[in-house]
Structure to design on (482 residues):
């Protein structure tokens, strides 16, 4: 087994998988490449294809120092195929094949299931680029614009990662799936993306930050569980993707954090004590905290739907087969087979929310979702620290998992953000307190005026603590082409 850490950039398609010696896959990727570029030009960042962007490109899969930074026009970004290093003697870490050597080829009996997992993951990658394509025009700074584009090119690379697996391991139907990934469109009525949250609009920058905080974090959880896979090429691919994903969540978390910070600072400077005095807070040119809370409620609840039904035989099958594990599977102390274990699941029983023990195997989605919630909760805690430091009296909260759901146990229930079950009439009456209204959206859009002068930031967001690649505050992260 070859083990290449450095990436070959002499090739048209940079890679560390010895593509030049794999003619069949190289040809398949080369014939897919022009369609990908057409897709990028049609659906990638609108209006900035000619601009020079200070981007990082992976030059190695060594976790320490894999990136190099330079100005690049996005269509010329070197999207490549990068797998984390092969681990000698790796065994299937869970399911009924626990302890057997991992597979380097697709096990015939799991082919359809595995292909579906890869296609679903692959579909989310271009979807988010499509959702975010208009945002460059309203970027609150060049720093933020650059971060958006960095996320976009890396989501493009994640699509390459999944397409490589499809073309290398799934023959003709893999190639067809790879084409389909370029044909679906976020929000389209006749050919939508596969998952709900990836068809929602991302109309403004706070939405983008919330998306990166919540939805890219779902991406992290999915990649973490696929990184456990007994199908070794999938595991290695996902392990490298996770190193890129960390930056996406950084963008989301610091974006929301800087928004919160700016709001609190403006309130303090103006002597405003009441965070709920929305009119006066907004008059300062910042986003009031209750509206930020509503945005969090919306994006968290939409993202929870991506975890699927709490109790799921599909999830059980993927676990049993050794294809998709749990978050940090190898660090969990149990038999990794879950034949007789149970896991508590929140359910609606006689109109009430109850915790019911279910077979752990069918509750795999619930468990991943719980791990996700814990991860989100820590982020919310850090936002509250920012608020606390400014002395403003307000606490952001993660809404209850039953709130505003469209999939699973709570889809027909009406649950408040703090977890009370109410009737439909009461929910309808209070909806505008829980979720952003059209007027809230209009207000946010009205603030998101573009700022393209180096070192300057829009009124509603604080500057970052440090620059990307340690660049100084005045650094021109994007040289915008006229
Ligand atoms: Fe991604
Ligand atoms: Fe991402």
């Amino acid at each position: 087994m070859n083990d290449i850490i450095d990436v070959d950039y002499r090739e048209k398609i940079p890679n560390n998988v010895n593509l030049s010696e794999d003619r069949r896959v190289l040809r398949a990727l080369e014939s897919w490449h022009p369609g990908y570029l057409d897709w990028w030009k049609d659906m990638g960042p609108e209006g900035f294809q000619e601009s020079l962007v200070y981007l990082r490109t992976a030059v190695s899969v060594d976790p320490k120092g894999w990136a190099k930074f330079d100005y690049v026009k996005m269509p010329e970004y070197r999207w490549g195929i990068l797998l984390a290093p092969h681990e000698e003697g790796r065994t299937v870490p869970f399911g009924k094949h626990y302890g057997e050597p991992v597979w380097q080829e697709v096990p015939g009996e799991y082919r359809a299931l595995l292909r579906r997992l890869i296609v679903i993951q692959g579909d989310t990658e271009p979807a988010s680029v499509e959702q975010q394509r208009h945002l460059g025009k309203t970027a609150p700074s060049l720093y933020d614009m650059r971060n958006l584009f960095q996320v976009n090119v890396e989501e493009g690379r994640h699509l390459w990662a999944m397409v490589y697996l499809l073309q290398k391991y799934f023959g003709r139907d893999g190639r067809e799936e790879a084409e389909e990934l370029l044909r679906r469109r976020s929000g389209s009525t006749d050919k939508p993306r596969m998952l709900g949250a990836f068809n929602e609009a991302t109309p403004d920058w706070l939405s983008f930050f919330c998306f990166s905080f919540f939805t890219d974090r779902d991406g992290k959880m999915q990649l973490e569980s696929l990184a456990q896979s007994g199908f070794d090429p999938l595991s290695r691919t996902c392990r490298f993707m996770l190193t890129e994903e960390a930056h996406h969540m950084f963008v989301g978390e610091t974006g929301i954090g800087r928004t919160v910070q700016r709001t609190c600072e403006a309130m303090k400077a103006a002597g405003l004590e009441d965070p709920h005095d929305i009119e006066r807070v907004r008059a300062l040119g910042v986003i009031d905290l209750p509206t930020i809370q509503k945005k969090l409620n919306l994006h968290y609840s939409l993202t929870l739907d991506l975890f699927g039904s709490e109790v799921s035989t599909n999830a059980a099958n993927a676990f049993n087969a050794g294809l998709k594990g749990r978050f940090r599977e190898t660090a969990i102390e149990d038999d990794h087979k879950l034949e007789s274990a149970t896991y508590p699941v929140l359910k609606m029983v006689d109109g009430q929310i109850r915790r019911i023990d279910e077979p752990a195997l069918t509750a795999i989605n619930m468990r991943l979702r719980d791990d996700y919630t814990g991860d989100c909760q820590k982020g919310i805690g850090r936002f509250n620290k920012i608020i606390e430091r400014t002395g403003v009296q307000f606490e952001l909260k993660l809404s209850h998992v039953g709130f505003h759901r469209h999939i699973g146990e709570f889809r027909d229930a009406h649950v408040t953000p703090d977890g009370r079950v109410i009737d439909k009439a009461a929910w309808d009456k209070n909806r505008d307190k829980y979720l952003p209204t059209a007027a809230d959206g209009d207000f946010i859009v009205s603030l998101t005026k573009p700022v393209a002068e180096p070192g300057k930031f829009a009124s509603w967001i604080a500057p970052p603590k440090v620059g990307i690649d340690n660049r100084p505050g005045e650094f021109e992260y994007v040289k915008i082409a006229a």
Observations:
- The chain has twelve helices and five strands.
- The pocket of fe (ii) ion (ligand 2) is lined by residues 155, 216, 219, 245, 248 (CB under 6 Å).
- The radius of gyration is 23 Å.
